[in-house]
Design brief:
Blueprint (H helix, E strand, L loop, with lengths): L1 E5 L3 H12 L3 E5 L3 H8 L10 H10 L3 E4 L2 H7 L2 E4 L14 H13 L7 E5 L7 H12 L6 E5 L9 H6 L4 E5 L2 H11 L6 E4 L1 H32 L3 H9 L20 H14 L5 H25 L6 E5 L14 H11 L3 E5 L4 H7 L7 E2 L3 H5 L4 E4 L4 H4 L3 H7 L4 E4 L6 H6 L3 E3 L9
Helix pairs in contact: 1-3, 5-6, 9-11, 9-12, 11-12
Bound molecules: uridine-5'-diphosphate-xylopyranose (UDX).
The site of uridine-5'-diphosphate-xylopyranose (UDX) has 21 residues, from helix 9.
């Protein structure tokens, strides 16, 4: 199949590359010439395990092209995916101006001679966006152009995006047009996964409802963690016990500092805003957000309670990315926490295996903290160690060496990575989330 993707951000680039990998002919379009040049040079602008090799391989095989020309993209693709940003606005609703602009650009490139085209919305958008895209394309296209509009939400996770795309657990698309449905089915033929075909509105809603539900699971376990702390129970055991019920499942029941990233915070806000605009105040999701925000505040008060004053305290922070296996710091709880500690005068040294540069660039931390090269140089001389991101490397740190290097014995583990007994055995006073304090 001939496919074009407009927008080579996270979703567009990984989706386009994986479509090429399964044999489709893919043209990726981006209006940023520097980005396109980087990609043409065989480099990728983001850190995502496995992606760079796949880009190189498929470019070499002639199945993956990059261009700045939307016209070329529309001409080359029987199916044109829109994968542009949908950033949040101050009131939580979604800014759809990029989608609207791309819809217009695609429309003017359509010709009656180019035949039937499918325009697919891949970006996460509010329900009813497909209808607006169809209206817009119709308004700006020349008479006689034939097209269908489809919603095809993406469920990939950063850090495992390639695998999520090549081996998805489900494929969902919404189409109100039989010709479009058939072309979409052909695109997804090489993938071994159940396919759910719905109407456009349901597909749009599935994305927001899925992400909100996952966020709800996280906030739920974090709320239960607070009860654990007050009662002496252990959240890890509780999560295991409830997760053994097939109807609940253990995944996304990891208590911690809460969710961050480019999706959950934005999507939950957007879903609240959309629901409200449709006449339903989604109070449950407002609670999910509140619990998530409070999680960080409560953690900081634990640190404050022990260190008494943060002014001039040397604090080592492990983790800057919003989660493991990524260099993405958008809405990173680690970065927010660091800024809060800095505001109280703490001296922070931080280490992250991948996110140092992005934290300097986008986290407003350059010149404000010290960036360490590894776990051990990070903890040297620290009075307290804070674990803020769930990188597996942190779970395997040599605790005896860490204790030797630190000047005091406090650990605040915001991701429950370390065994509380092992920490106490090495002489640490160990605080985590929803578990009893050890070594005090
Ligand atoms: C998410 C969805 O998982 C994915 O399906 C969607 O397409 C995009 O949004 P992503 O943002 O890459 O993916 O990260 P994810 O692995 O879902 O983690 C999100 C946040 O939740 C991270 O900050 C992580 O630390 C936190 N989290 C996750 C928890 O606190 N506890 C958990 O049990 C799981």
């Amino acid at each position: 199949m001939k496919i074009s993707i407009i927008g080579t951000g996270y979703v567009g680039l990984t989706t386009g590359t994986c479509f090429a990998e399964v044999g489709h002919e893919v043209t990726c379009v981006d209006n940023n010439p520097e980005k396109v040049q980087t990609l043409l040079d065989g480099k990728i602008p983001i850190y995502e395990p496995g992606l760079e090799d796949l880009v190189k391989k498929n470019v070499a095989a002639g199945r993956l092209k990059f261009t700045t020309s939307t016209e070329e993209g529309v001409e080359n693709g029987d199916v044109v995916f829109i994968a542009v940003p949908t950033p949040p606005q101050p009131d939580g609703s979604v800014d759809l101006s990029f989608i609207e602009k791309v819809a217009r650009e695609i429309a003017v490139c359509l010709t009656p001679q180019s035949g039937y085209k499918v325009i697919v919305d891949k970006s996460t958008v509010p329900v009813k966006t497909g209808e607006k895209v169809a209206e817009t394309v119709k308004r700006y296209a020349k008479p006689g152009c034939e097209f269908g509009v489809v919603s095809n939400p993406e469920f990939l996770r950063e850090g495992s995006a390639v695998d999520d795309l090549l081996n998805p657990d489900r494929i969902v698309f919404g189409s109100n047009d039989e010709r479009a449905t058939q072309l979409m089915q052909k695109i997804y033929e090489p993938f071994v996964a159940p396919v759910l075909v719905t109407d456009v509105e349901s597909a749009e809603l599935i994305k927001h409802a899925a992400n909100s539900f996952l966020a709800l699971k996280i906030s739920y376990i974090n709320a239960v963690g607070r009860i654990c702390e007050k009662s002496g129970a252990d959240i890890e055991k509780v999560a295991e016990g409830i997760g053994m019920d097939d109807r609940i499942g253990r995944k996304f029941l990891n208590a911690g500092l809460g969710y961050g990233g480019s999706c959950f915070p934005k999507d939950i806000k957007a879903f609240i805003a959309i629901s409200e605009s449709l006449g339903y105040p989604f109070d449950l999701l407002k609670q999910v957000e509140q619990i998530n925000d409070d999680q960080r505040t409560l953690f900081l008060s634990k640190i404050r309670e022990k260190l008494w004053v943060l002014q001039d305290k040397k604090i080592a922070v492990l983790g800057l990315a919003f989660k493991q296996n990524t260099d993405d710091v958008r809405e990173s709880v680690a970065i927010k926490l660091i800024h809060e500690m800095l505001a109280e005068g703490a001296q922070v040294t931080a280490y992250d295996p991948e996110a140092t540069e992005t934290a300097k660039k986008f986290g407003n931390l350059d010149g404000k903290i010290t960036f360490a090269e590894d776990v051990y140089s990070c903890v040297e001389g620290a009075e307290a160690l804070v674990i803020a991101t769930e990188w597996p490397e942190f779970a395997h740190a040599d605790l005896a060496k860490v204790r030797e290097l630190m000047s005091a014995n406090l650990i605040f583990d915001g991701r429950n990575l370390i065994d509380p007994v092992a920490a106490a055995n090495q002489g640490f006073e160990y605080h985590s989330i929803g578990r009893p304090v050890t070594g005090a």
